[in-house]
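User: Hey, quick favor. My workstation is busy. Could you predict this chain's structure for me?
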Amino acid sequence: MYIQSILIPCVALFLLDFVCADTIQQTRFMVTKGHKLSQGTQLKRINSTNISLALCASICTSECGSATFSVRHKTCITFRDKFYNFSMIWTQDPDWLVLFRDEAIQYGGWTLVFRAQNHINVSMYHTWTNNGQHDDNPLTSSSLNGCYRLDNLGGCKKHFRSSILDSWTAVKKVKLSVYVNGSEVNYIEFQGASTSRETWFKQALISNSSWSNIMTDSSVNYFSLQGYAQGGHARRFIIFGGHGTCSLETTYFLAVDQASDDCLENWKVPAGSYPIFIASRAKGMIQISLRDYALADVMAVFVKF
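Assistant: No problem, here it is.
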């Protein structure tokens, strides 16, 4: 996938009955060649011999989330939806381009700072702590139609890491969510004030959760982002109760961050690729060996400022 950026000047499109606002002068758009967007909420469709890439981007004003453009077909289509929204469909087409603003990835007012993909054999914790890996400065993911979405469409083969993780300032709230087939199955919201990238993940900071018992559950003994990596284990973002014997271990959530774990066979969790996200399907902690868990596709971390 070829990706470039363009700085769009302010252009008056009188033939297209549109006057460009001054605010667009410093808008930077990213452009990907060989793809077409469809299915979203369409704002404008312009067929004109006068249309160009710059003019198409100029038409994509504040209410526009993304656009698709073809020189061959002399067509520009703008959409209300962001390119990563579930409503958008990407198709490969050499005659088309996709345009989108170089800005933070947001879902419902939350800014995405980390997205971990299951079974890609890349350590999520190493990515989390990898200072300088910025997949949003500019947006340069190798699988744009997958690595910014919260479903499994697009075949994402990397973990998304925002530059915000290296400049954790003025964060008011943090949210951890896990997704199965594009649906959020569990979440935890935390108070983020006066925290750092490594200190927000604490039971005492929980403000809301889909697990109704978790805020006051005294049976939680281990609540750790770093988790532990020793012996036959590499477990991260762990929320554990009983610990030590595979058949008796209890959890709300954990991420297995290597290809094997001494307990996977006992838990009936397929081994061989990682990371693996195990989330309780109950309102409280589960005994993992009893298999009342969901194996999630994606784990994401969001912030609010």
